[in-house]
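Dear all,

This email documents one entry for the complex benchmark we are building for the journal club exercise. For each entry we list the sequence lines for every component of the assembly. Then comes the predicted three-dimensional structure of the complex as a token string, followed by one or two observations. Please use this as the template for your own entries, and keep the labels exactly as they appear.
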Amino acid sequence: MAVDPLAVDPLIELRDVNKYYGTLHVLRDINLIVGKGEVVVVIGPSGSGKSTLCRTINRLETIQSGSIHLDGQPLPEEGKALAKLRAEVGMVFQSFNLFAHKTVLQNISLAQTKVRKRRKDEADQRSRELLDRVGLAAHAEKYPAQLSGGQQQRVAIARALAMDPKALLFDEPTSALDPEMINEVLEVMQQLARDGMTMVVVTHEMGFARNAANRVVFMADGSIIEDRTPHDFFTNPESARAQDFLSKILKH
Amino acid sequence: MNVLIDNFSVYGEGFLGTVELTVYASILALILGFLMASFRVAPVGSLRAFGTAWVTVLRNTPLTLLFFAVLLGLPRFGIVLPFQLFAVLALGCYTSAFICEALRSGINTVPRGQGEAARSLGMTFRQTLSTVVLPQAFRTVIPPIGSTLIALAKNSAIAGAFSVIELLGTYKFLSERGYNIIWTFVWIAVGYLIITLTISAVFNVLEKRYGVAR
């Protein structure tokens, strides 16, 4: 379970991270390093702590012990410094979380003007470029509720990209989607991976893990059980937990 | 009928007094209520505690007692202001506790993910609250805030007992003059209806414009 020696330039570093909900120990001694440009897919049974792990990286969840560094800097406490750091790490949620009272274009432009202090026309131009990139240029003036789930998730990805983040976190981005919409989102994600974006992806999409990931991290009961290349993991899982998990999901 | 025609200026003065109390106290209550609601959802513990204490004390104290405290208490600390200003302070602070809770219930109707998305984009607590959470909360809090301000308009009658000129207080002057008490009160009631129905009309318009779009 050695950390990838190729990751010479670490962007995200978690060291001995522990988290509890009351007495429930949800993250146990997590050590994870994600290098610049790496795509790390986190998989595991539900309740294994993989979403929580993803959310600790931009401190939407706090941790009780251990340390998290982003690009060499420790994650700050709540406040302006934390906000500044969060702008560098985009996040895409399972339930999209587009701002319901704003149009697609406003969704993407809002944080650009508020956080990056871009002029409105400048922000809108960038937003339209990104919408074009995710194939939704025609939908700029619509409200989120008027779009399908897959379209909403692509807007959410564009919104995260608008901040020019150093890394993107995906918390089960396709789990709330109808099957026919999953591919349109995965295609956008695969393109990002090819473009060299650093990504941490919590997902159940094994196809994406095989094709796009540099590493697969397998979690169970709050611990990282395996951390290997997709090929090694899928063809030759070492632990009984991973073998059991794979036998269940790859049967059909 | 004569009561109104003979004493139009008295009624008018009282009516204006009540309108002034209502408008100024409403503005104060909305500002303070907004501030306290922000405190109660803030990530800073001491702000949350202050907001909670503010609401607990003011919401659970009789308004009359608050009037006594402000009008008789503050001068002891050397704070001497016109009685009308004292009355606005008492009414505004009292009502702010209810406005705060109405706003907070609205904030709680906005899904958590909305705030999380804003924070994950690097927006500060204030930016998140003012551009993402409150505009969505606003839609659901229009009706309860309307009710609270109507209650404020009626509560302003208590100020009359502390020699502030307002609508209900006009009855003392008129009954001393021997006017029919029933008609005196009918016209006072009409005065309050004008104010409260205006408030409801304004909030109906607000609700029509902002309440539905989703």
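Observations: The two ends of chain B are 49 Å apart (CA to CA). DSSP finds nine helices and no strands in chain B.
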